[in-house]
Every structure is written in structure tokens, then in C-alpha cells.
Design a protein that fits this description.
Blueprint lengths: L5 H6 L4 E3 L3 E3 L4 E3 L2 E7 L4 E4 L11 H11 L4 E3 L1 H6 L13 E2 L2
Parallel strand pairs: 5-6
Antiparallel strand pairs: 1-2, 2-3, 3-4, 4-5, 4-7
Length: 101
Amino acid sequence: MKAQDVPALWAVSQVASANGNIQTNGNTLHSYALLIGLTTADGAKVLIDYTKAGGHFKSRTTTKHVRLATGHADRVVTVEQAKAEGLITDTGAPGKSVKID
């Protein structure tokens, strides 16, 4: 499977992986081990902006993964917004209001 296919499958809650570089269990979306997308308790797909423009650049590959997923998310939030809304913890782990399984 190609990296560009994974975000579309995340959007419809399907399991997918592109060589482990970008993967989803249908609820969460990861770039390598970094949580970049999640599903809220009400089913909304939220993408976390780990890009230079978002103020939290991790790598060029993670930026690519975020960009690939942008069109498939219901909304895109900054890292600060995700923390403030309880979507992620200070360590980047999923918050309590997130479906993880």
C-alpha cells in the first residue's frame, strides 16, 4: 500500500499501513510512532498539524503525512489546540476523549 492511500482509509475507519511509515487502526493515524490524527468520541477525524507552518515541525516525512491527511480530516488543529481540548496529553498520547481501539 502507498502512503497516500492510508489517510483515506483512516477517514472511513479502516486499518491500513504503508510499510509502517504511516499507519492507522481506523481510529488513530500515526506518522512512524507520532500520533498525527485521531477520532473523537463522536466520530470526527481530527488531524494534528505537525508541520513547520503549524509550529511543530518533526520531519519532512511527517509533514508529508500530515499534508496527505489534510483533505481527509474533519478539522485540523495545532498541537496547542489538541492539548487544550484534551485530544492529546503533554506527551502526545491520546487524551480521554479519543477512540484508540
